[in-house]
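> agent: user asked for a holo structure of the chain below bound to guanosine-5'-triphosphate. Plan: (1) validate sequence alphabet, (2) canonicalize SMILES, (3) run complex prediction with ligand conditioning, (4) return tokens. Step 1... ok. Step 2... ok. Step 3 dispatched.
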Amino acid sequence: MSEIIQPTVKQGAEAFRSGFVSFTGRPNAGKSTLTNALVGQKVVITSDKPQTTRTVVRGIVHRPDAQLILVDTPGLHRPRTLLGERLNDLVLTTWGEVDVVAVCFPCDERVGPGDRFLVTELAKARRSIKVAVATKTDLASPDRIAEHLVEIAALGAETGIEWAEVVPVSSVGGDQVGLLADLLVGLLPEGPQLYPDGDLTDAPEEILVAELIREAALEGVRDELPHSIAVVVEEMGLREGRPEDKPLLDVHANLFVERDSQKGIVIGHRGSRLKSVGGRARQQIEALLGTPVYLDLRVKIAKDWQRDPKQLRRLGF
Ligand SMILES: Nc1nc2c(ncn2[C@@H]2O[C@H](COP(=O)(O)OP(=O)(O)OP(=O)(O)O)[C@@H](O)[C@H]2O)c(=O)[nH]1
């Protein structure tokens, strides 16, 4: 899935364009949902818990005239843990490498200090073109959207950023998503196709599967617990000796929490919660990979892993 093929330049009246776009914005701004809406399939997980995104995952939009590679970054925030610092570093590095940075400002929230912090940092990344996206327009009145666009323009002026475009969209309603794709393509440099037709992401399957399990585990948990959950796929492979028309994919995964008390919550009364998490995750994995799945999911404690460099490495950060 992840191989980069030899560049081929597609022929046509208009030159083919290709490049990288990074969505950024405060936690919960709708970046992951927008990535999936543009790709047309779920390639990154989403949730209503802030700071869901931890890895840089790429979604790939294939068009006859262009290839748009979307880089989904964690939300930038004032770091409180070592994990927080690592995630912020990842964001700053990404901004220096992409062609376009698109900042998401959710319409159901005012432009605020969190946005100002982020945009002030972004202004330092001089190389990339900047676009503003007003997300979640389905949650706001036309008047509120208009006001929001004015606030976004003012923030640009205040921080010295010149927005190449300011685009209102609703990923859930599918509103203006196509227009946003057109505008982004227009900002990309001319270049060859970078990924094979049909590839929608270059994240390894183990990562996608771990993320789907984490997404299922995040549903219904509160407070600090979402941040304490990490999932690692230890082993994944087709079970041997199965008939060719009845394959079964074995997935062995560990779900880490930071404390004993959290383990109890995740497992639930007599394992009920873990069972439903496993069931939901299994359905999503089967939908993604198109094979029946046997999911062996175990809960383990990695004490205070968010603050421990050794544990962070082990969990892939
Ligand atoms: N109504 C509505 N909800 C949306 C829209 N886009 C995203 N959401 C919701 O907003 C929440 C956050 O969306 P995500 O896409 O996970 O946000 P994110 O910016 O990637 O979040 P982090 O990974 O935490 O930084 C989820 O509950 C989404 O369903 C939209 O266009 N309309």
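> agent: step 4 complete. Summary for user: The chain has two domains: 17-187, 205-314. The domain at 17-187 is CATH 3.40.50.300 (Rossmann fold).
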